[in-house]
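User: Hi! Is it possible to get a structure for several chains at once, not just one? Here's what I have:
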Amino acid sequence: MKALIVDDDLALADVLSFTMRRAGFEVITAHDGLAALERWREDSPDLIVLDLNLPKLDGNHVCRQIRSESDTPIIMLTVRAEEDDVVRGLEQGADDYIVKPFSPRQLVARAEAVLRRARAALPRGPLAVGEVTLEPGRVRLRRNGETEVPLTRLEGRLLEALMLNTPQVVSSDSLIDAIWGPSGGDRSMLKQLVYRLRQKVEPDPSDPTHIRHVPGAGYLFEA
Amino acid sequence: MKALIVDDDLALADVLSFTMRRAGFEVITAHDGLAALERWREDSPDLIVLDLNLPKLDGNHVCRQIRSESDTPIIMLTVRAEEDDVVRGLEQGADDYIVKPFSPRQLVARAEAVLRRARAALPRGPLAVGEVTLEPGRVRLRRNGETEVPLTRLEGRLLEALMLNTPQVVSSDSLIDAIWGPSGGDRSMLKQLVYRLRQKVEPDPSDPTHIRHVPGAGYLFEA
DNA sequence: TGCGGTTGTTACCGGTCTGTGACCGCCCTT
DNA sequence: AAGGGCGGTCACAGACCGGTAACAACCGCA
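Assistant: Yes, the chains can be modeled jointly so their relative placement is included. Here is the combined structure:
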């Protein structure tokens, strides 16, 4: 399990590294935002501990950037307990946050919790079923010729959830959970999202062949 | 849907009960840890709302105990936003937590989300008995040749309830509970539903062989 | 600040599902 | 033999659901 620790306070970064290594993690460090992105791209860690205040590139920005390309779990570190920071952090896709000062035990506990949650989530990588190939952020469609369509974050999650279970029916509830997380979405949101995804993926959106509805059960993906 | 509410603050417990009843739950309450475990064992609720601070037996302890024996969804209530509490709670297997004070709407929303997750987690694979195979949203019938008939939500639940208990008789009341939930259906609705299901599943609906009626007892499914 | 893209909300339409009431016939009791 | 309870059958209307669409809210970015 590889963890990337990003903090410009060298002393603190050392403490964190030590703590995480003791907990069995392999640790990489970075001390500014740009380096963080670089390390992330090169070493593809399983978990990122990210300070909010960073030179060169702000923690929020780093978080957004990473989140736009992957779901690597991120734990934010913040000095202030300002509600606003926390809320914004979580909105940007951080999986958890810790307010300084904090105990090593707490960091480890959170790291493990976040990883547990992430593991429950879905494996990554290109996912091909029939003429449809899902890659992070877009689909490739092979019918006569080859098209590439960009997908939004939610559309991607929906398609992934469906393709991973093909050709089984996935219940609306499971889908809602997979896309918006617990206490997140509702049926009308799902309905709308399905509609939008079909517009992009179906040869004839008004007569869907890939994303089929099974009354009383849910949706399924078919080649 | 039965909810167990555990809080030693009687006034708050009342408010919670009222809220949950309004949302359609049947509510049981307990005011200390020991009583909570007892109520849980006897009434087997579908959901538990558990305060952290309890007399006699601490909320954490109750949570661990329950988790070691079952997967009943648990929502923790905590006064402080203390991170430690939350982390420990989740580590012990709570499914969600709410920090007091909170709005009734929020409690209901989380309760429903947690239940949805629990329901989605159940393995709902194909269920085969004799020449009849039940899949999400449809039945497959193997008599000379193979037919596939779509089922509605309620029809599916009825058939599932019957097939899961084959070849035992299931009482009308249990069926009503399984299909409409408590405080849901009545006999005439069940009667009607049986009729509709037979139309789809029986070779000769006017002389049922699979879905049989046992006077004074209920229905049973036979191959 | 305004822009474009993404997401949530609401409304509407058409089809299906389902609750309801009515009627029939059977069986059991009286 | 009459009557009542129960299950089976049927028709119907309102509820519900999914697909479609337009709009509002929001966010990151220029």
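The longest strand of chain A covers residues 2-6. Chain A has a mean pLDDT of 78.

User: Great, thank you!
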